[in-house]
Design goal:
With 153 residues, this protein is of the alpha+beta class. The chain contains five helices and five strands, in the order ααββααβββα. Strands 1, 2, 3, 4 and 5 form a five-stranded antiparallel sheet that branches. β1 and β2 form a beta hairpin.
């Protein structure tokens, strides 16, 4: 079954694309240099019926082709985006599942290809026959990343 009204199944890829594009002006000139795809996806559910809840979980791959910008800007943008959209990845620094894997292919002295992989989740409620994508839970004010939310949220 296709998503209704042309909506995408999940919303976080578009949000990440917007954040990275805003941080890296060279992508406005060459939007094809940024590729995003999803893999290893699955759905969890608490049951069926009119008030069921489900969660999409997937690996998001962010790929920059022929990147000549500053990798620090890219990675800090990803971390700041995660502070809002998937804060659990930043709250457990000693958990192996909380790392942000990446690969870099050095093309020459000025260009690289960068692949960043993120394990993401999105919760969806079904209430009264309508599907509602839930906002990411708010981070505790005392959490180490709370300051990031204030700066960018």
């Amino acid at each position: 079954m296709a998503p209704s009204s042309g909506r995408r199944v999940v919303r976080k890829p578009d949000s990440l694309r917007a954040a990275v594009t805003a941080a890296l002006p060279e992508l406005a000139r060459d939007p094809q240099a940024l590729k995003i795809w999803l893999s290893k996806g699955h759905v969890r559910s608490n049951g069926i019926g009119a008030d069921a809840r489900m969660e999409y979980a997937y690996e998001l791959s962010l790929f920059l082709l022929d990147f000549t910008g500053d990798p620090d800007v890219l990675f800090s943008t990803v971390v700041e985006w995660l502070a809002i959209e998937q804060p659990n990845l930043l709250l457990r620094p000693n958990d192996p599942s909380s790392v942000i894997p990446f690969e870099i292919d050095v093309l020459d002295d000025s260009k690289v290809d960068i692949l960043v992989s993120l394990q993401l989740e999105e919760a969806v409620d079904r209430a009264g026959g309508k599907f509602v994508h839930l906002p990411t839970p708010v981070v505790d004010e005392n959490a180490p990343i709370a300051g990031l939310r204030d700066r960018i949220g």
